[in-house]
Amino acid sequence: MDRDRKTIKTSVRSTYIPIMTSRGFSSPFNSIPVEDPEKKGRIARQIPGASLPLLSTDLTYVIVPNNRRKDFSLALRPGKCLEVRVPAKYAEKDMLAYETYIVSKQDWILRVHEKYQRREEKYPESLMKIFPDREYILYLGEKYPFHIQHHNIPRQTWISLEKNCFEFRTDKNDSEVLRAALSKWYLKRAEEIIPPLVEAYATIMKIPAPDLAYSSTKSRWAVCYPTRNLIRFNILIMKAPPDCIEYLVIHELSHFYVSNHSKAFWEIVSAYMPDYHARKKKLATYRAVL
Questions:
Q1: What is the CATH number of the domain that holds 191?
Q2: pTM for this model (two decimals)
Q3: pLDDT, tens digit, 9 for 90 and up, residues 240-270
Q4: Cβ-contact 45, 32 below 8 angstroms
Q5: In a domain, 174, yes or no
Q6: Are 79 and 106 in contact (CB under 8 A)?
Q7: Are 194 and 95 members of one domain?
Q8: pLDDT above 70 coverage of the chain, percent
């Protein structure tokens, strides 16, 4: 699936030297080291609003290393600070390139931030507050209240959907434990709902039923590997309505005919789902739940 947010990439050409802190970095924009807002222990710095006339506010960014990355990119997600995604090994002098690029992309940062604000105003049902502080849980496009019931069995958490309400039975009200339990619950639902859909539509599209795998990511609803005869689905698609899940299945199966998103690809999708435009647009409103 195409990502609903833009990722700006630029190359970093340098001799990579692993570093663990940016406190020695002298910023041309007078940035200062700050604590990671998300408490993940990452390098974080704040560029003052004086250097960001378009944003007119201080901007905190965090360094997010990845050993598979060869360049760096900017990513801004709803309610999050700006992420600078970088190779696992990088030189301190690269910090200058990161901040220079951030300052040069103020218009992009502003546009993405305003886009998320508009989406929240237009599609409040697609936005989730941080669990367990949210007011509801999404499942198949419906909003359900939830109730947490405590018990004394150590390290045991159960979830059930009863009488249009999610029931959590747990030994402690720990947000990480509850999120993990909910992820397992979504996985079970995905394993029940997605395989029959894939098998049915694969038969209609005259494609051998592919192998299926599941994950929980922050970037894609699903990804298809035609050469491996595999489709990997994001379990969070269980938050979307059934018609959106059907669209996703046909979308991924169509990649067995065309691997890219060219005109030929969309003609295949349209042939098996003439109203895919509406379903695709509807699914896009749920991007914020990733």
A1: 3.30.2010.10
A2: 0.57
A3: 999 999 999 999 999 999 999 999 999 999 9
A4: yes
A5: no
A6: no
A7: no
A8: 81
